[in-house]
Design a protein that fits this description.
Keywords: Aminopeptidase, Hydrolase, Metal-binding, Protease. This protein has 19 helices and 28 strands. The chain is an alpha+beta fold. It folds into three domains: 11-155, Creatine Amidinohydrolase, Chain A, domain 1; 168-310, Creatine Amidinohydrolase, Chain A, domain 1; 313-594, Creatinase/methionine aminopeptidase superfamily (Creatine Amidinohydrolase). The strands form eight sheets. The chain has a six-stranded mixed β-sheet with strand order 4-3-2-1-5-6, sandwiched between helices.
Length: 604
């Protein structure tokens, strides 16, 4: 199994570990310390050696921050984790605070005293984040202090060793563009920005640029590494040499110079002493990297990672790979859905058994490299936790007459998938069917959207929420995230969310996943991946438009749809989508699954 169901948190240890950290802070002359969930790359997935927030607090979510002061401690999480944090953390030690409603800088203004020193690890906090935190400290007469050695690491006696996952080439026939051409293309962008060199801190940017993949973190084929990309000359790749075979080292040596990660800061200092203009992304680069340049007399040019947008816009080869991967994945998912319906009608199933079965169907394709994230297999009230992680301690038997939510995906060399379906088990209450149909209306609104060039995800986000708003409901997460090409299942800069300020462009892949969550009762989410395309001309229109092509191919549970709540156009979309699923998937499945699929995709 790619997924473990062992418990990954222990709230009971939070008190002792917090006390140990406070003792270490007192020794260092600090009045507090910031413990982010992030590693030096600010990635969603971090290796066990960098899971400091989880070790300290027990919280296992993908985003968060703890602030430990001498007399008070808080843990900040967003709306995805407001329920989870109270289950995983000793709230008598760490007070949960909503990250959006009360951002850490605002909280600090109310808690810090004049003259106090708040410590932080400058590799783990971005330039932009440190700027906000420093302003908050200065506003109350406190001081934000960079710490050389992380005090959490000093008290973490059994801290795991950093990962040494093997690095492999990603073939040009799957990448669609050789690394040499990518490097030249992005170097031109660096030069156009007036910079001498760009710092790349995100491993997925580096993996894309050099056409390599790795295995340093779970579920995402990333080689943890840094790079310096000059406007002219060879790039520098900072990666642990133990991850490279001799053959790969020889190949990469034709593209770049290879150095160990520990030499990055000194390399930046050399650039600073040479008076170079160094470009870095303030939202992703660690504060220590900017400090190394500036302290040595160089100039920092703040700009977005130059790889982000080119990586997000898939080329023709990557797009065709995504379509192929989704057909393969859709067939596996259809086999799973047919199995689920047959089995749940005769025998009890629990959340773990379902997650294991789905992974098994994907494995049987023979091409699954990993799952793209831990499967969210959520029965009844667990589905109301958007990022619920099933464990052996939490696994519920799926009750009859309820909703079951499963959010999952696969990593294939030709594409990354991510799909959520909410499934009827028995006779589902009418209220839950109404909620499902409201979510479906939002999903269809995004799927059928037509929008001009320059439209951002924030402008589309309202479409997914409108039907829910009319009923007095909403959901506390974005409507859609970007998706990589055999890379991160959560890729920027594109997103459909209130914070989605990047214009959507043809070739981008995004999720479409509105939801509804009733605490303690049920949760609903319907998710497809969508490819941004140039839409067909609209009669009478006077400008070209963009739209979406659904990549995900799996039935949406018709048993949960209240047809009278849908417009004729929405019914037509659902029927056309199901006709496409049947056409694409039925030839790829066995006859038993095919007969199930005939019924599941029949017109509403």
């Amino acid at each position: 199994m790619f997924q473990s169901f062992d418990s990954v948190n222990d709230p009971s240890r939070g008190s002792a570990r917090c006390a140990a950290l406070r003792a270490e802070l007192a020794r260092l002359g600090l009045d507090g310390f910031l413990v982010p969930r992030a590693d030096a790359h600010q990635g969603e997935y971090v290796p066990p050696s960098d899971c400091r927030l989880q070790w300290l607090t027990g919280f296992a979510g993908s985003a968060g921050l703890a602030v430990v002061l001498a007399e008070k401690a808080a843990i900040f999480v967003d709306g995805r984790y407001t329920i989870q944090v109270r289950e995983q953390v000793d709230t008598l030690v760490f007070e949960p605070v909503h990250l959006i409603d009360t951002p850490p800088p605002e909280w600090l203004r109310g808690e810090l005293k004049p003259g106090q020193k708040l410590g932080y690890d400058p590799m783990l906090h971005t330039v932009a984040a440190v700027r906000r935190l420093a302003r908050a400290c200065e506003a109350v007469g406190a001081e934000l202090v960079a710490v050389g050695e992380n005090p959490v690491d000093r008290i973490w006696e059994d801290r795991p060793a950093p990962p040494l996952g093997a690095v492999v080439r990603h073939p040009d026939e799957l990448a669609g563009e050789p690394a040499e051409r990518k490097i030249a293309r992005i170097a031109t962008e660096v030069s156009a920005k007036g910079a001498d060199v760009a710092v790349l801190t995100q491993p997925d940017s580096i993996a894309w640029l050099f056409n390599i993949r790795g295995s340093d973190v779970e579920h995402t084929p990333l080689p943890l590494s840094f790079a310096l990309l000059p406007a002219a000359g060879k790039p520098l790749l900072f990666i642990d040499g133990r991850k490279l075979t001799n053959a790969l080292r020889d190949h990469l040596s034709d593209l770049c110079e290879i150095e160990e990660p520990g030499s990055l800061v000194s390399a930046l200092s050399r650039l600073g002493r040479a008076g170079k203009r160094v470009m870095l992304d303030p939202e992703w680069a660690g504060d220590a990297l900017a400090r190394a340049v500036l302290d040595a007399g160089g100039e920092v040019h703040e700009a977005a990672d130059p790889v982000l947008l080119p990586k997000a816009i898939k080329n023709a080869v990557e797009i065709e790979g995504a379509r192929t991967a989704h057909r393969r994945d859709g067939a596996a998912f259809a086999r799973f859905l047919a199995w689920f319906d047959r089995t749940i009608a005769q025998n009890p199933l629990d959340e773990i058994a379902v997650a294991e079965a789905l992974e098994g169907f994907r494995r049987e394709t023979g091409l699954l490299k990993d799952i793209s994230f831990d499967t969210i297999s959520a029965a009844g009230p667990h589905a109301a936790i958007p990022h619920y992680r099933v464990s052996r301690a939490s696994s519920l038997q799926i009750p009859q007459d309820s909703l079951f939510l499963i959010d999952s995906g696969g990593q294939y060399e030709d594409g990354t998938t991510d799909i959520t379906r909410t499934i009827a088990v028995g006779d589902v209450p009418e209220e839950q069917k109404r909620h499902f149909t409201l979510v479906l209306k939002g999903h269809i609104a995004i799927a059928t959207a037509r929008f001009p060039q320059g439209t951002t995800g924030a402008q589309l986000d309202t479409l997914a929420r409108s039907a829910l708003w009319q009923a007095g409901h909403d959901f506390d997460h974005g409507t859609g995230h970007g998706v990589g090409s055999y890379l991160s299942v959560h890729e920027g800069p594109q997103r459909i969310a209130k914070t989605g300020t990047v214009a959507l462009k043809p070739g981008m892949i995004l999720s479409n996943e509105p939801g509804y969550y009733k605490d303690g009762s049920h949760g609903i989410r319907i998710e497809n991946l969508e490819l941004v395309t140039e839409a067909s001309a609209i009669p009478g229109g006077d400008r070209p438009m963009l739209g979406f092509e659904a990549l995900t191919l799996a039935p949406i549970d018709r048993r949960l749809v209240v047809k009278g709540m849908l417009t004729p156009g929405e019914v037509d979309w659902l029927n056309r989508y199901h006709a496409k699923v049947l056409r694409e998937i039925r030839p790829l499945v066995d006859e038993t699954t095919g007969r199930w699929l005939d019924e599941a995709t029949s017109p509403l």
